[in-house]
Description:
Blueprint: H1 12-19, E1 24-26, E2 29-31, E3 38-42, E4 49-54, H2 58-73, H3 82-98, H4 100-111, H5 115-136, E5 144-145, E6 153-161, E7 164-168, H6 174-188, E8 191-195, H7 202-214, E9 221-223, H8 228-237, E10 243-247, H9 250-260, E11 266-270, E12 275-279, H10 285-297, E13 307-313, H11 314-330, H12 349-364, E14 368-371, E15 375-376, E16 382-383, E17 386-389, H13 396-399, E18 406-412, H14 417-424, E19 429-430, E20 432-436, H15 440-449, E21 454-457, E22 471-472, E23 475-476, H16 481-486, E24 489-497
Parallel strand pairs: 7-8, 7-10, 8-9, 10-11, 12-13, 12-20, 13-18, 17-18, 20-21
Antiparallel strand pairs: 1-2, 3-4, 5-6, 6-24, 11-23, 14-17, 15-16, 19-22
Helix pairs in contact: 2-8, 3-5, 3-7, 4-5, 5-6, 10-11, 14-15
The structure holds adenosine-5'-diphosphate.
Amino acid sequence: MSVNVSMAMIPAAVSEFMRGPHRLLIDGKWVPAASHRTFPTHNPADGSLLSDIAAAEAVDVDLAVTAARRAFDDGPWSRMAPAARAKLIWKLADALEAQAEEFAFIETLDNGKPLNDAKVVDLPHSIEVLRYFAGWCTKLNGESISISNPGTWHAYTTREPVGVVGSITPWNAPLMMAVSKIAPALAAGCTVVLKPAEQTPLTALKLGQLILDVGFPDGVVNILTGFGETAGAAMTAHPGIDKVTFTGSTEVGRLIVRAAAADFKRVTLELGGKTPVIVFPDADIDRAIEGAARSIFSNAGQICNAGSRLYAHRDVFERLVDGVSRRASEIRVGAGLAASTQMGPVVSQEQLERISGFIASGQNQGAEIRAGGGRIGSEGYFIQPTVLTGTRPDMDVVQQEIFGPVLCAMSYDEADLDRIAREANATNYGLGAVLWTQNLSTAHKMARKLKAGTVRVNGGGLDPALPFGGFKQSGWGRELGREGIEGYTELKSVAMAL
Ligand code: ADP
């Protein structure tokens, strides 16, 4: 980690926001938790206390659900003209854009990511997601259906909002995750109870301020900060919630499905991933090196779709591993606020230990460290970008999601697409896959063979129009795109005998 770096100056408005108080947004008002309990949120760059946050529990969940229920059942939101809903969501996007700088600082302080990443990735994407779904408000239609029953019929479908949505989000991209859940829900006409991750609650609370400022009716969006086992579990068990949408670990996803089964809540899940990056010998190797490094080291590898398994043809393997390892050793790791930082700390001591444990287990099972492998310093949660070789398909580091900057590099011998696909598909996850090849036929054939919700060829990036989600244990349903908003609706068929 570099020392004596210049730190970005924290804007006065951010310092003022950080001081708080940080309460719960219920029915258009900021209120303390009924228990008056709070919990601390920390800066991952140095472990220091940032703010105290209200800790919601079951009784607060009940109040928030009652407010969201009222706003949906009797209130103005579900009955508002679609164009009026669109206007408010667009206004929220404008307000977010106007305060993007402040949001980026808050995200960096709370999550650790480089300020520049927050500015060029998290904020623009969040703003675009709001605008993209604002556009859908006026385009959410059913269709007319030709039916063959005897007689003369007029039949059609409509899409109705599913109701009150409970959204539970993770800490790796806190604002982006919150917006990716709120925007389509609101566009569909649903009301929302949002619970951000306890590690990174601040940008969701700041978003709550904007939601009030731009004039959303009371109760349409409620924000509950708190822990998963208390607030989160109370949400998934609450009979007033019609749908739960969750991004997080596969283990918690399983708990949510169990809880939601009681009353068959609708459930969308974005869970873990173990994305393979497959490099064919005809690829543009320099670009593949750059892309593979970006895919695993961006956001310190804390991305469900991080390219954590590299499969390269033996003819290009050494060049790739050398190139990615060189990139790994050059990445400037440091505090997110430092101007030179390219990779920040991981979010918490717990994650630091988890990632270190995986690296150690890889070594114990025979993997070799080609780059990184250790913690940096003793303050904050910094870990070196790491490349492991000599990894085998049965190792934990190859099978399990590490959620850190750790790449497992493996080679294959022949360009037998079925074999490569079999190996790439040999995990419980199926979120993404990345291919590097200049051969169209290889790209299309592989895209068909991979069991992954998203296949990217020769590049990456998120787009609000592209559905995102997983096969297998990577989740249920899709976010973003048309499917993203349709997931917040119930489909109704109407048939009339004329
Ligand atoms: P991670 O393991 O990466 O911290 P989690 O899946 O535990 O991710 O957390 C993602 C979100 O799920 C957080 O908002 C967390 O509070 C919430 N959560 C954790 N446990 C539960 C639970 N039992 N029920 C509902 N939500 C939970």
